[in-house]
Amino acid sequence: MKPVVVRNIKIGEGRPKICVPVVARDEASILKDAREIRALPMDVVEWRADWYEDVTSIGKTMGMAAKLRQVLGDIPVLFTFRSAKEGGKMEISPEDYAALNCRVASGGQVDLVDVELSMGDSLVEDVIQKIHMEGLGVIVSSHDFEKTPPKEELVSRMEKMQRLGADIAKVAVMPRSGDDVLTLLSATLEMHEHHARVPLITMSMSSAGVISRLSGEVFGSALTFGAASQVSAPGQIGVRDLKTVLDIVHNSR
Fold first, then answer.
1. Which terminus in the chain has less CB density within 10 A, N or C?
2. Residue 206 DSSP symbol
3. Residue 132 annotated as catalytic
């Protein structure tokens, strides 16, 4: 498995990379958060565009992406519109979702685009191909805020992401017990050691699953999400604390 190189960051090699989400509604707040994030020990910035109040205007969204690029400089930017069914702030039709992701990719201001597996195989494959034509990478993601599916289902889901053309496969699930956390970690390890052709991002959400955000290097998860001022998913911890633990794990190996 080769790492995914985004600007100067290698995802899938060495210590798991830290991604910090920008979750704000208006332009001024988004840019303020981005300026503050620059001072943090992180590797990638995720713009959660489903929070942006003008996201339904593709022109304004592309303009916002350009302003983010000016602030963040050479820091890799992941563009994510998280749909309501996967824990996002608003719903969107599959057609509008595809159009938004492809247009933003064509603007050349972001480096990675998140595409949700639940949008359907045909749409996902088509969007991936169009984003790849722009020279960008794609994270195909799947989120379950209700439960943790069985290990076999999680592995199967990540294998499917690979088949559809993902550069990185991402799975986030909700644990209802300690066993659920172990299920996520076991699925990650099996996928990483036996099936993965691309880097993986996996996490067990909420406070019960925090260990999964810290132990990625042991089980095969290549990136983890840390919070700056506001979390974008249950269980995220502060970036500085996160880096401290990741460094401890990395240096002990």
1. C
2. T
3. no
Catalytic residue among 89, 130, 143, 151: 143
Task: Kindly tell me if the per-residue pLDDT of 207 is higher than 70.
Answer: yes
> Which residue in this structure is represented by tokens 């088509």?
126
Q: In 90-247, where do the E strands start and end?
A: 112-116, 137-144, 168-173, 200-204, 223-225
Out of 89, 130, 170, 243, which one is annotated catalytic?
170
250 an active-site residue?
Answer: no
Report how far residue 57's alpha carbon sits from residue 49's, in angstroms, rounded to the nearest whole number.
Answer: 11
- pTM summary value: 0.96
What is the C-alpha separation between 71 and 161, in angstroms, rounded?
Answer: 32
Separation CA 66–CA 44 (nearest Å): 16
Contact by Cβ (8 Å): 3, 13? yes
Q: Compute the residue count for the chain.
A: 253
Cα dihedral value 204, 210, 211, 216, nearest 10: 60
